[in-house]
Amino acid sequence: MGKKQHQSDKLYLTATEWSTFYGGKKQESHGPKAKFRRLPFHCCGYILPFIKKYGINPVDGKKLSPKDLTKLNFHKNSKDQYHCPVTFKVFNENTHIVAIKPTGNVFALEAVERLNFKAKYFKDLINDEPFTRADVITIQDPEELGKFNLADFYHLKKGLKVTSEEEEKAKKDPKYKLKAISAETRDILNELDTTYKPEEKKSVEKRKADNVNAAHYSTGAVAASFTSTATDRATHQEADLIDEDKLKYERVKKKGYLRIHTNLGPLNVELHCDAVPKTCENFLLLCQRGYYNGTHFHRSIRNFMIQGGDPTGTGKGGDSAWGGAFSDEFKPNLIHAGRGVLSMANSGTNTNKSQFFFTYRSARHLDNKHTVFGKLVGGLETLDKMEKVETDKKGGDRPLQDIIFESCQVFMNPYEEAAEQLAKEREERKKQEIEEAKKLLPKRPKKAEDEGMKVYKSSGVGKYINPSSSIKAENEVSEPMTKKKKTATGSFGDFSSW
């Protein structure tokens, strides 16, 4: 901005200032308005990879093959400068340079005009190979620089590039386009490269509807695709699928029984699998996998409860049999009443994992907050020993003597029976469907070929001929053909009978 009267600065932003200093639109690097960019004669591009990929001339866009190329032989002097091998003049930007196509030797036009054109000696000045005027290729002409303007080259206008394998790999890196980053950002990205692990994509097989898991209602995909463009198109109604766990839990009608072996004695447990199937299956699966083996009962409060099931022993660890947490299952008849009630420990609503506890006495304030899923049916003396163990009240009521969950022995697992029953039902229904399909097929009449021909003799001629039929044919006498009587027809005659 101008401050003085005779200063060259304007009182407004010029186009140059706007494009260079203030982020305005810059001039195009190629096109009709692009600045002139000269291609030096000594520069060489990798044209073979370009031709193999695109099959065109990068300058004018016409078809071009590797056979159309001519290898040029440039000569250098002792100072490693390009020069004419005849006149020994060093090539520069103002030198008219040509090449002979049959040999590929490069000369200054001055030498070719004086020794070839004027002398009418059309042979190469180095190896005497004959050539014609049409074989002279202009490499650089200082008077016609338009041919060597990079801004007019076809491959730059169209953005055609040949990238190497390393560049292709680098482009896949998200940091490829980051030109300038701070040191803190660089450290964060480096740490992310070392610690980040992408999640493994689990291949989930699409379940198919069968005669057991097919619901009486549809998926609703047809209606959704008809009313919303955000959903995929669906033209066929498909029955919705009932969850396999729900089908299995409907067939669980029995209790589960197991024995927990501790270092203070055994605990016999009855599980309410018929009432709270999800919670009981979680406990049974973890017991059968040995998940609890070697864990400690990490918290014990006299006249209240004893808690365990955490492999870390801190009260903050553990996981369910399926990974993550699962929902609560509250039943009005399953309450924290009495000694030896088995219930799930949690950190809030629907946060059940692997931790559980046994009550030392009734705790009705825990109803509808913790899921009751079992009770002790044997081993109350072991529970008495657990309650008598002294605890560290300042250290989170942790028992001073180790109380260890050594192993578990499962006596009754109703979920295995339910799974077998479900598989049998599927097989039976498949058989019924096959039989019903057979009944619907039209019955084919039996042919004589299917029944087989009757044999009258063991072998020889006339094996399949009934001899009685031939005797009957001989005895039968052919009756004479009787003439049919003509029936009189009523018609007028010629009066001859009168």
Description:
With 498 residues, the protein is α+β, with helices and mostly antiparallel strands. Among the domains are: 47-158, Herpes Virus-1 (2-Layer Sandwich); 249-418, Cyclophilin (Beta Barrel). Helices cover 25% and strands 15% of the residues. The chain has 13 helices and 18 strands. The strands form 5 sheets. The chain has a 9-stranded antiparallel beta sheet. Helix 8 crosses helix 11 (414-440). InterPro entries: Cyclophilin-like_dom_sf, Cyclophilin-type_PPIase_CS, Cyclophilin-type_PPIase_dom, Cyclophilin_A-like.
CATH superfamily name of the domain at 249-418?
A: Cyclophilin-like
Give me the side-by-side strand order of the main sheet: 10-18-8-9-15-13-14-12-11
Mean pLDDT: 83
Shape: flat
- Broad structural category: alpha+beta
Strand element count: 18
Taking the alpha carbons of the first and last residues, their distance comes to 154 Å
Gyration radius, to the nearest Å?
50 Å
